[in-house]
Write a structure and sequence with these properties.
Length: about 525
């Protein structure tokens, strides 16, 4: 606790917080205002879980940029999903909130219901396409009287390059949605828009010992499921995709009389899954494709657009990314930035476009490194100072309202839905979380008890306990409780930090809470 004493001679501090000199009790003056806030944060950071860990913290005035507190603010660290802050800010700056993805079906003008040549399915990067969207495009073709494709169905995903995974994505992560392969033509498993994945539903049979009943969304013939799961008295299911092929193995038990459970797994080569789904959609619409499926070819000049689908606006998709920390949409957006800037969607062109989008808002990209759009890579390096600069600078952007409204709100929604409840930060803090093994981050906005709007960024690396998120919450709550008149002790007491308990060890704490299935927030 930082205190300013009034006496410089030999003193002793009493348990009550006063000092004694030769038997005389003299009141001890405690710092207030920003110094008290700094002392409160320092006290929170004495948590033994942070011993030998790397901690970067910056707190600043949201309107002036004046730094109120900094610890290791210029030191680079892995930001986790705080990476999505730069991706979405750059996208709103470079593409605009009205931006939409367009997916097209192209071919020669039909004659007597027949498309004479190949039919092209051309993607532009839309990560939110669902099975129902492919069904509608097929139905639109049928409504035009098309009944036969005399050539092949060609899946054009060439808006993005063929590098499907980012630098240093963990091998053990690749079957999960947050590390799904990136393609310009894909399909999502549900309306939470986990692109390039399938969702496996596991339901009990009619009696104990019966095989579990499985189904997939989207329905397809591209992924094979091997089922050894049975109906039992408890639900304990293992769902794993083979490392080198699209075989998903389901084992364990699902409890009799329940609705069962589900698990979502990414696929290898999502373009081929999308083409398989669309081929089924065409068949369901009564359209026969006489040829084969082909992949990765550019649509030639000449064919006309026969059907198309547009995504939701980028304004809508920003919340889809930030509130649940959707990685596959963020990665598609990263490559889309590169595609719109250069004509080629790559991780490298996405990085350049992202930097160009945030630099006008006072962000120095020299000391940082961003290699993907979602923060999955451990090659990403950011600083709490840099993220605070972005948070301050973004307030000057015409897209700020969209970005701010898309951030998770403490004790209300997104990845903060169950955090900071019962503190002054509840429904006050708007911030982006970050979660990986030994990586945790929280950066965003908070209004203190005097009504002053502040920004903060906390990045913690190299801790051994499963989570330090309660420490982040205490810092955010202390900032929310801060007043110019409060001492350190009063700030901590007003913040209710004692009510924010250290969570038990939990292997799921290395994940964003929305990535756990079913979600735990």
């Amino acid at each position: 606790m930082r205190k300013r004493t009034l006496i410089s001679s030999a003193i002793a501090v009493t348990a009550a917080g006063a000092i004694t000199i030769a038997g005389t009790v003299v009141a001890q003056a405690q710092e207030t205002g920003d110094e008290a806030l700094a002392a409160a944060i320092d006290a929170i950071l004495t948590d033994k879980r942070l011993t030998d860990s790397q901690v970067g913290v910056t707190v600043a005035d949201a309107n002036t940029g004046e730094v109120l507190y900094e610890r290791n603010g210029a030191k680079r660290a892995i930001p986790g999903s705080n990476d999505k802050l730069t991706t979405t800010a750059a996208a709103l700056e470079q593409l605009g909130g009205d931006f939409k993805y367009t997916t097209e079906v192209l071919g020669d003008r039909p004659t007597d219901g027949v498309v004479a040549g190949d039919l092209y399915l051309r993607g532009s990067g839309d990560p939110t396409l669902l099975e129902a969207d492919y069904d509608r495009m097929a139905e639109d073709l049928a409504d035009r009287g098309i009944s036969t494709i005399d050539g092949d169905l060609v899946a054009d995903d060439t808006a993005f390059d063929s590098v499907r995974s980012g630098t240093e994505w963990g091998w053990s992560d690749l079957q999960f949605t947050y590390a799904a392969e990136v393609s310009a033509l894909t399909v999502a498993s549900g309306d939470d828009y986990n692109a390039g994945s399938v969702r496996v539903f596991i339901k009990p049979g009619a009696a104990e010992g019966d095989p579990a009943q499985l189904s997939m969304a989207p329905a397809n013939d591209y992924v094979e499921i091997v089922n050894s799961a049975t109906t039992g008295t408890t639900t304990s299911v293992s769902v794993n995709r083979d490392p080198h092929d699209n075989v998903i193995r389901v084992s364990g038990t699902v409890k009799l009389g329940t609705n069962g459970t589900y698990a979502t797994r990414s696929v290898i080569e999502p373009t081929q899954l999308a083409a398989d789904v669309f081929a089924d959609s065409l068949a369901d619409a009564g359209i026969t494709v006489n040829g084969d499926l082909r992949f990765g070819e550019t649509t030639p000049q000449g064919p006309e657009t026969l059907a198309s689908h547009q995504s939701r606006t980028l304004t809508d998709l920003t919340a889809v990314i930030l509130k649940p920390s959707n990685a596959s949409v963020a990665e598609a957006l990263f490559k889309t930035l590169g595609y719109e800037a250069t004509g080629t969607g790559t991780f490298a062109s996405g990085k350049a476009a992202t930097y160009a989008g945030i630099e006008p808002y006072g962000v120095d990209t020299g000391p940082i490194r961003q290699v993907d759009g979602s923060g999955i890579s451990r090659h990403n390096m950011m600083t709490s100072n840099m993220l605070a600069d972005l948070l301050v600078g973004a307030k000057k952007a015409d897209w700020f309202g969209t970005w701010y409204d898309s951030l998770p709100i403490a004790c209300k929604d997104g990845t903060l839905a169950s955090r900071m409840c019962g503190t002054p930060a509840a429904e006050n803090v708007r911030a982006k979380t970050g979660s990986m093994t030994s990586v945790s981050a929280l950066s965003g906005y908070v209004t203190d008890a005097d009504g002053r709007e502040l920004v903060f960024s906390v990045i913690v690396n190299d801790f051994l306990y499963s989570t330090v998120k309660d420490i982040e919450d205490k810092i955010a709550a202390a900032i929310a409780a801060h007043t110019t008149a409060a001492t350190e002790a009063e700030t901590l007491r007003s913040a209710n930090v004692d009510d924010i308990e250290m969570p038990a060890e939990d292997p799921n704490h290395s994940l964003e809470c929305t990535w756990v299935e079913p979600a735990v927030c």
